[in-house]
Amino acid sequence: MSPDTRPRRGLRLTLAAAIAMTAALTAPAAGAAPATSRDSVPVPGAPGLGDPLFPLDGNGGYTVDRYLLDFDWQAPKTPFRAKATIRATATTELSRFNLDFAGNTLHEVTIDGTPAEAVREGDELIVTPWLPLPRKSTFTVTVTYTADPTQIRHRDDAIEDYGWIPTPSGTVLYPQPNGAKMVFPANDHPSQRAPVTFRVTAPTGLTAVANGRLVSREPLTGGRERWTYDSEQPVSTQLVQMAVGRLTAVDRPTTNGVPLRDFVPDELVDRTDEYLDLTPQHLRWLEQRLGAYPFKRYGVLVGDTDLGVALETQTLSLVPKADLLGTRVDAERTLVHELVHQWFGDSVALRTWSDLWLSEGHARFYERLYSEEHGGDSFEAAMKTAYTNHNLWRRDFGAPAEPTEPNLFKRMRYDGSALVLYALREKVGDETFRKIDRAWVTKYRGRTASTQDFMDLASAVSGQDLASFLRPWLYGPTTPPMPNHPDWVATPVP
Ligand SMILES: [Zn+2]
Q1: Distance from the CA of 285 to the center of ligand 1, in angstroms?
Q2: Phi (first) and psi of residue 65, to 5 degrees
Q3: Ligand 1 center to residue 50 CA distance, Å?
Q4: Which of 78, 146, 232, 415 is deepest in the core (most CB within 10 A)?
């Protein structure tokens, strides 16, 4: 949080303000005992969690226990009624708090059923309750709004378009990095996770799908149906998925106890079947290295869109159709990459956006390792190329763990970060490297972890100080020598 970004209150005199004013006017005279103890003075929740790259993302003063999202979905680019019901717990006594919320048309905010003052400032929704919320109290915020499914933002890096992505028959979501707030009011930071229940009504004949388990499917009057999904496990807002469209559910054989169900645009089922049938093989290959898959189910949502990039939305990866209509090698690279993320990035969540190298580096590392074993390019050759370019990438995109907001999803976070893991493997040997990664996804399963946590764990598992080895790889201006490859040269940058 930076102090100069604190929201200003709206000017209109609200009931809460009137109560505060009355309290001030009737307060005991100076010298009298204070009416409340010091630690129970209500304070505003911070407008952001102070992430170095996105300081206003996420919010302070409370944690979300559960989201219940009601979407009365109509048609691909048609606004529709929506309601978010957010159960949260105050971590301090709150005079007000923020939600991240962008675009859409706000109607009403209530807290525990009572209307609350709500002021919008940029992507912040500032909510002031009737009375302060006591520390440790649980409260329920409802936000009703008209959702705008045409809202898209753009980044000039690997993300490209994010937010709502329309398809010919519906929509898919691309919330990474902070586009969930375009879909629902949220505590929108990767370190903040909560279970989500989705209740989506849509015209009969279309399919709605979201993270987790289909709880129920009910016919409604007027040619509509309601689909209810439960994420089952907490999910970061950047990894939420909700899609509607002419989709066919395709079950693959349950693999190592994990049910596999893909959602494919009807007309693409035959054309994508061959590659999507490989998921059981991918899952077995990854479980051999990383241990048990961390969620209760998995599937691929094929995006009927020109979207350039796939996304590891939790338990249901979004993969653009183009990735499945080319060569097998390319398709498998994408499919394995997103599946790896279920361990790295989804199960083990990012503490801050500067930890992204851990998630993208591992996804690229195993993607290339798998690909080399299955007809793709040489892993070592790719790493040698990355090494050659590494100083250049440092200059242009920041060191692996030193991104800036504009260069976050540039090449340094992918091959440039896989190279750090490759260097680690060269340093400690394959057996120890496997132990480190396995310990990482086991110890931090379902938790949030940082770069420092990774350095500490790698050191503990290997019995040597790997922080002093990794730090120059991850931070600073110059790429260190590659262990075991004295002939590799990182092009110097003047
Ligand atoms: Zn990735």
Answers
A1: 18
A2: -90, -35
A3: 24
A4: 415
